[in-house]
Amino acid sequence: MPQEAYQSLRFLPTPVAEREDERPFVAVVRSQKELCRLLLESPRGPEWLQVEGLLGDPDVWAQAAHSASQVPLDVVLSNPATEFSDLYRLVDVCAVREVRVSVPAVPGFLKAVKLAASLRLPVRVLPGQPTSEVLAELTEALGFYLHGAMVETPVEFFHSLLAAACGADTGSLWMILEEDPAAFLHYDAEGHVELPRSRGFRLAEISPEVFVEHHLKNLVEQGAECATCPWQQACRGYFKWPDPAYSCAGVKQLFSIIDAAAGEIEQDLASREGQSNLTASEEEN
Predict the structure, then answer these.
(1) What is the DSSP string of 215-230?
(2) How far is CA 80 from the centre of its chain?
(3) What is d(CA 40, CA 33) in angstroms, rounded to the nearest whole number?
(4) Does a structural domain hold residue 164?
(5) CA distance 29 to 50
(6) Quick check: is 88 in a domain?
(7) CA–CA distance from 13 to each of 34, 36, 63, 131, 212 (Å)?
(8) What are the pLDDT digits (tens) for 206-217?
(9) In this predicted structure, what is the pLDDT of residue 3?
(10) If you write DSSP's letter for every residue of 176-237 in order, what string do you get?
(11) Does residue 272 sit within a domain?
(12) What is the span of the domain harbouring residue 22?
Protein backbone atom coordinates (compact mmCIF):
# COMPACT_ATOMS: atom_id res chain seq x y z
CA MET A 1 0.00 0.00 0.00
CA PRO A 2 1.31 3.49 -0.77
CA GLN A 3 2.22 5.69 2.18
CA GLU A 4 -0.22 8.59 2.50
CA ALA A 5 1.33 12.02 3.11
CA TYR A 6 -1.36 12.77 5.70
CA GLN A 7 -2.79 11.02 8.72
CA SER A 8 -5.97 9.07 8.12
CA LEU A 9 -7.77 6.14 9.67
CA ARG A 10 -7.62 3.13 7.37
CA PHE A 11 -10.30 0.44 7.15
CA LEU A 12 -8.54 -2.79 6.21
CA PRO A 13 -9.82 -6.32 5.50
CA THR A 14 -8.55 -8.62 8.25
CA PRO A 15 -5.92 -10.41 6.11
CA VAL A 16 -4.41 -7.01 5.29
CA ALA A 17 -4.80 -5.73 8.87
CA GLU A 18 -2.90 -8.68 10.29
CA ARG A 19 0.15 -7.62 8.31
CA GLU A 20 -0.17 -4.01 9.41
CA ASP A 21 2.37 -1.71 10.98
CA GLU A 22 1.70 0.81 13.74
CA ARG A 23 -0.32 3.31 11.70
CA PRO A 24 -3.94 3.68 12.91
CA PHE A 25 -6.44 1.32 11.31
CA VAL A 26 -9.75 -0.48 11.72
CA ALA A 27 -9.89 -4.19 10.92
CA VAL A 28 -12.92 -5.24 8.86
CA VAL A 29 -13.98 -8.70 10.07
CA ARG A 30 -16.21 -11.00 8.03
CA SER A 31 -15.79 -14.46 9.58
CA GLN A 32 -15.95 -16.11 12.99
CA LYS A 33 -12.34 -17.26 12.72
CA GLU A 34 -11.12 -13.75 11.93
CA LEU A 35 -12.94 -12.20 14.87
CA CYS A 36 -11.88 -14.84 17.39
CA ARG A 37 -8.29 -14.62 16.18
CA LEU A 38 -8.22 -10.84 16.47
CA LEU A 39 -9.80 -10.91 19.93
CA LEU A 40 -7.18 -13.37 21.11
CA GLU A 41 -4.21 -11.76 19.42
CA SER A 42 -5.10 -8.28 18.23
CA PRO A 43 -2.57 -6.76 15.83
CA ARG A 44 -0.92 -3.53 16.81
CA GLY A 45 -2.92 -0.35 16.55
CA PRO A 46 -6.56 -1.29 15.85
CA GLU A 47 -8.90 1.53 16.79
CA TRP A 48 -11.84 -0.87 16.61
CA LEU A 49 -13.08 -3.94 14.75
CA GLN A 50 -15.80 -3.51 12.14
CA VAL A 51 -17.74 -6.77 12.29
CA GLU A 52 -19.89 -7.56 9.25
CA GLY A 53 -22.43 -10.34 8.74
CA LEU A 54 -21.85 -12.18 12.03
CA LEU A 55 -24.68 -11.04 14.28
CA GLY A 56 -26.56 -14.31 13.78
CA ASP A 57 -23.71 -16.48 15.14
CA PRO A 58 -24.12 -16.93 18.94
CA ASP A 59 -20.66 -18.48 19.33
CA VAL A 60 -19.02 -15.31 18.05
CA TRP A 61 -20.62 -13.16 20.72
CA ALA A 62 -19.96 -15.64 23.51
CA GLN A 63 -16.30 -15.36 22.59
CA ALA A 64 -16.46 -11.57 22.43
CA ALA A 65 -18.12 -11.42 25.86
CA HIS A 66 -15.36 -13.44 27.51
CA SER A 67 -12.25 -12.26 25.70
CA ALA A 68 -9.60 -10.37 27.66
CA SER A 69 -9.24 -7.95 24.75
CA GLN A 70 -11.08 -4.66 25.19
CA VAL A 71 -10.92 -3.49 21.57
CA PRO A 72 -14.26 -1.79 20.64
CA LEU A 73 -16.62 -3.32 18.10
CA ASP A 74 -18.76 -1.76 15.38
CA VAL A 75 -21.38 -4.39 14.53
CA VAL A 76 -22.72 -3.83 11.01
CA LEU A 77 -26.08 -5.45 10.32
CA SER A 78 -26.71 -7.07 6.95
CA ASN A 79 -30.51 -7.29 7.08
CA PRO A 80 -31.80 -5.29 10.06
CA ALA A 81 -35.45 -6.20 9.46
CA THR A 82 -34.73 -9.87 10.23
CA GLU A 83 -31.61 -9.60 12.40
CA PHE A 84 -32.85 -7.07 14.95
CA SER A 85 -33.73 -9.64 17.63
CA ASP A 86 -30.14 -10.94 17.52
CA LEU A 87 -29.01 -7.64 19.05
CA TYR A 88 -29.72 -9.17 22.45
CA ARG A 89 -26.52 -11.17 21.93
CA LEU A 90 -24.54 -7.96 22.36
CA VAL A 91 -25.74 -7.27 25.91
CA ASP A 92 -23.01 -9.34 27.59
CA VAL A 93 -20.43 -8.05 25.12
CA CYS A 94 -21.12 -4.47 26.26
CA ALA A 95 -19.99 -5.40 29.76
CA VAL A 96 -16.40 -5.89 28.59
CA ARG A 97 -16.01 -3.55 25.60
CA GLU A 98 -17.59 -0.63 23.76
CA VAL A 99 -20.07 -1.66 21.08
CA ARG A 100 -21.76 0.36 18.36
CA VAL A 101 -24.45 -0.87 15.99
CA SER A 102 -24.36 0.28 12.36
CA VAL A 103 -27.67 -0.12 10.53
CA PRO A 104 -28.09 0.30 6.77
CA ALA A 105 -31.25 2.24 5.93
CA VAL A 106 -33.19 -0.49 4.14
CA PRO A 107 -36.87 -1.41 4.58
CA GLY A 108 -37.51 -2.54 8.15
CA PHE A 109 -34.36 -1.02 9.63
CA LEU A 110 -36.30 0.91 12.30
CA LYS A 111 -36.87 -2.29 14.28
CA ALA A 112 -33.13 -2.60 14.80
CA VAL A 113 -32.74 1.09 15.68
CA LYS A 114 -35.44 0.92 18.35
CA LEU A 115 -34.15 -2.28 19.92
CA ALA A 116 -30.53 -1.09 19.91
CA ALA A 117 -31.59 2.15 21.58
CA SER A 118 -33.58 0.25 24.22
CA LEU A 119 -30.39 -1.74 24.93
CA ARG A 120 -28.52 1.58 25.27
CA LEU A 121 -26.29 0.84 22.31
CA PRO A 122 -24.98 3.74 20.21
CA VAL A 123 -26.45 3.55 16.72
CA ARG A 124 -25.18 4.71 13.33
CA VAL A 125 -27.79 4.76 10.56
CA LEU A 126 -26.20 4.47 7.11
CA PRO A 127 -28.69 6.27 4.83
CA GLY A 128 -27.09 5.87 1.41
CA GLN A 129 -29.50 7.17 -1.23
CA PRO A 130 -32.83 6.21 0.38
CA THR A 131 -35.91 5.23 -1.58
CA SER A 132 -39.26 6.85 -0.83
CA GLU A 133 -40.16 3.85 1.35
CA VAL A 134 -36.95 4.17 3.34
CA LEU A 135 -37.35 7.96 3.60
CA ALA A 136 -40.68 7.43 5.35
CA GLU A 137 -38.95 5.10 7.79
CA LEU A 138 -36.08 7.55 8.26
CA THR A 139 -38.62 10.23 9.17
CA GLU A 140 -40.13 7.88 11.75
CA ALA A 141 -36.66 7.03 13.05
CA LEU A 142 -35.87 10.72 13.40
CA GLY A 143 -39.07 11.26 15.38
CA PHE A 144 -38.12 8.32 17.60
CA TYR A 145 -34.66 9.83 18.21
CA LEU A 146 -36.07 13.28 18.97
CA HIS A 147 -38.95 12.23 21.20
CA GLY A 148 -38.42 8.61 22.29
CA ALA A 149 -38.25 8.28 26.08
CA MET A 150 -35.92 5.28 25.86
CA VAL A 151 -33.26 7.03 23.73
CA GLU A 152 -30.24 7.64 25.98
CA THR A 153 -27.40 7.06 23.50
CA PRO A 154 -26.61 8.83 20.22
CA VAL A 155 -28.40 7.84 17.04
CA GLU A 156 -26.24 9.01 14.16
CA PHE A 157 -26.49 10.72 11.75
CA PHE A 158 -29.39 12.54 13.45
CA HIS A 159 -27.40 13.30 16.60
CA SER A 160 -24.55 15.18 14.93
CA LEU A 161 -26.79 17.02 12.47
CA LEU A 162 -28.90 18.27 15.37
CA ALA A 163 -25.74 19.37 17.18
CA ALA A 164 -24.58 21.16 14.03
CA ALA A 165 -27.94 22.93 13.72
CA CYS A 166 -27.43 24.11 17.30
CA GLY A 167 -24.01 25.55 16.41
CA ALA A 168 -21.58 22.68 17.02
CA ASP A 169 -18.78 21.98 14.53
CA THR A 170 -19.48 18.36 13.62
CA GLY A 171 -18.29 18.38 10.03
CA SER A 172 -20.31 17.19 7.06
CA LEU A 173 -22.25 13.95 6.71
CA TRP A 174 -19.20 12.46 5.03
CA MET A 175 -17.27 12.93 8.28
CA ILE A 176 -20.15 12.06 10.60
CA LEU A 177 -20.68 8.73 8.84
CA GLU A 178 -16.93 8.04 8.49
CA GLU A 179 -16.99 8.12 4.70
CA ASP A 180 -14.83 11.15 3.91
CA PRO A 181 -11.68 9.70 2.33
CA ALA A 182 -9.71 12.69 3.61
CA ALA A 183 -10.01 11.15 7.09
CA PHE A 184 -11.29 7.58 6.56
CA LEU A 185 -9.67 5.46 3.88
CA HIS A 186 -11.40 2.21 2.96
CA TYR A 187 -9.31 -0.50 1.29
CA ASP A 188 -10.28 -3.57 -0.69
CA ALA A 189 -8.67 -7.00 -0.33
CA GLU A 190 -5.96 -6.06 -2.82
CA GLY A 191 -4.92 -3.00 -0.83
CA HIS A 192 -6.48 -0.42 -3.14
CA VAL A 193 -8.39 2.58 -1.80
CA GLU A 194 -12.08 2.57 -2.64
CA LEU A 195 -15.02 4.75 -1.71
CA PRO A 196 -17.85 3.53 0.52
CA ARG A 197 -21.15 2.79 -1.22
CA SER A 198 -19.33 2.28 -4.48
CA ARG A 199 -17.65 -1.09 -4.63
CA GLY A 200 -14.82 -1.10 -7.10
CA PHE A 201 -14.53 2.68 -7.42
CA ARG A 202 -10.89 3.54 -6.82
CA LEU A 203 -9.34 6.90 -6.10
CA ALA A 204 -6.80 6.68 -8.87
CA GLU A 205 -6.94 10.21 -10.25
CA ILE A 206 -8.45 12.25 -7.40
CA SER A 207 -6.62 12.83 -4.14
CA PRO A 208 -8.56 11.47 -1.15
CA GLU A 209 -8.03 14.79 0.61
CA VAL A 210 -10.06 16.73 -1.95
CA PHE A 211 -12.58 14.13 -3.13
CA VAL A 212 -15.59 15.59 -1.30
CA GLU A 213 -14.84 19.16 -2.39
CA HIS A 214 -14.25 17.99 -5.97
CA HIS A 215 -17.53 16.06 -5.92
CA LEU A 216 -19.50 19.05 -4.59
CA LYS A 217 -17.82 21.46 -7.02
CA ASN A 218 -18.83 19.25 -9.96
CA LEU A 219 -22.41 19.09 -8.73
CA VAL A 220 -22.67 22.86 -8.39
CA GLU A 221 -21.11 23.47 -11.79
CA GLN A 222 -23.55 21.01 -13.40
CA GLY A 223 -26.53 22.82 -11.90
CA ALA A 224 -27.50 20.20 -9.33
CA GLU A 225 -29.85 21.21 -6.53
CA CYS A 226 -26.82 21.40 -4.20
CA ALA A 227 -26.07 24.86 -5.64
CA THR A 228 -28.99 26.48 -3.80
CA CYS A 229 -29.52 23.94 -1.03
CA PRO A 230 -29.61 25.55 2.45
CA TRP A 231 -27.98 22.43 3.89
CA GLN A 232 -25.07 22.34 1.47
CA GLN A 233 -22.44 22.71 4.21
CA ALA A 234 -23.84 19.88 6.30
CA CYS A 235 -24.33 17.53 3.35
CA ARG A 236 -21.54 18.43 0.88
CA GLY A 237 -23.25 16.34 -1.79
CA TYR A 238 -23.42 13.21 0.37
CA PHE A 239 -26.82 12.18 -0.96
CA LYS A 240 -25.68 12.78 -4.55
CA TRP A 241 -23.21 9.89 -4.36
CA PRO A 242 -22.87 7.59 -6.17
CA ASP A 243 -25.81 8.68 -8.37
CA PRO A 244 -25.61 12.47 -8.92
CA ALA A 245 -29.15 12.48 -10.35
CA TYR A 246 -30.69 11.35 -7.05
CA SER A 247 -33.50 13.69 -5.96
CA CYS A 248 -33.01 15.13 -2.47
CA ALA A 249 -36.61 16.32 -1.96
CA GLY A 250 -37.29 13.78 0.78
CA VAL A 251 -33.89 14.28 2.36
CA LYS A 252 -34.52 18.01 2.61
CA GLN A 253 -37.63 17.28 4.64
CA LEU A 254 -35.45 15.41 7.14
CA PHE A 255 -33.11 18.39 7.38
CA SER A 256 -36.10 20.68 7.91
CA ILE A 257 -37.34 18.57 10.82
CA ILE A 258 -33.87 18.64 12.40
CA ASP A 259 -33.65 22.41 11.95
CA ALA A 260 -37.06 22.86 13.55
CA ALA A 261 -36.02 20.67 16.49
CA ALA A 262 -32.84 22.73 16.92
CA GLY A 263 -34.94 25.90 16.97
CA GLU A 264 -37.17 24.44 19.67
CA ILE A 265 -34.12 23.49 21.74
CA GLU A 266 -32.67 26.99 21.45
CA GLN A 267 -36.01 28.57 22.40
CA ASP A 268 -36.30 26.25 25.38
CA LEU A 269 -32.78 27.09 26.54
CA ALA A 270 -33.44 30.81 26.12
CA SER A 271 -36.68 30.50 28.08
CA ARG A 272 -34.95 28.63 30.88
CA GLU A 273 -32.16 31.19 30.99
CA GLY A 274 -34.72 34.01 31.13
CA GLN A 275 -36.62 32.27 33.92
CA SER A 276 -33.37 31.71 35.82
CA ASN A 277 -32.41 35.38 35.50
CA LEU A 278 -35.89 36.44 36.65
CA THR A 279 -35.69 34.17 39.68
CA ALA A 280 -32.23 35.49 40.57
CA SER A 281 -33.51 39.08 40.25
CA GLU A 282 -36.49 38.35 42.50
CA GLU A 283 -34.22 36.80 45.13
CA GLU A 284 -32.00 39.88 45.12
CA ASN A 285 -35.03 42.10 45.71
Answers:
(1) HHHHHHHTT-GGGG-T
(2) 15
(3) 11
(4) yes
(5) 6
(6) yes
(7) 10, 15, 20, 29, 24
(8) 788 899 999 999
(9) 37
(10) HTT--TTTEEEE-TTS-EE-TTSTT-B-SSS-GGGHHHHHHHHHHHTT-GGGG-TTHHHHTT
(11) no
(12) 9-207
Q: State how far the Cα of 126 lies from the Cα of 134, in Å rounded to an integer.
A: 11
Give the C-alpha distances (Å, rounded to integers) separating 276 from 270, 271, 281, 284: 10, 9, 9, 12
Q: Measured between alpha carbons, how far is 124 from 182 in angstroms, rounded to an integer?
A: 20
Report the alpha-carbon distance of residue 90 to residue 95 in Å, rounded: 9
Number of structural domains (the chain) is: 1
| Rg of the chain taking only CA atoms, in angstroms | 21
What is residue 17's predicted lDDT score, i.e. its pLDDT?
Answer: 84
**Sign of the torsion formed by the C-alpha atoms of 146, 107, 26 and 29:** positive
Whether 149 is covered by a domain: the verdict is yes
Burial 240-251 (b: 16+ CB within 10 A, else e): bbeeeebebebb
Angle at Cα 103 formed by Cα 236 and Cα 38, nearest 5°? 105
In angstroms, the CA 180 to CA 52 distance is 20
> How do 184-187 and 193-194 pair as beta strands?
antiparallel
d(CA 81, CA 275): 46
Q: Does residue 49 contact residue 72 with C-beta atoms inside 8 Å?
A: yes
For the chain, list residues with pLDDT below 50: 1-6
Residue 52 has phi, psi (to 5 degrees) of -120, 130
Q: Residue 281 has what pLDDT?
A: 55
User: HEC profile for 140-166?
Assistant: HHHHHHHHCCCCCCCEECHHHHHHHHC
- Give dist(CA 51, CA 32) in Å, integer: 10
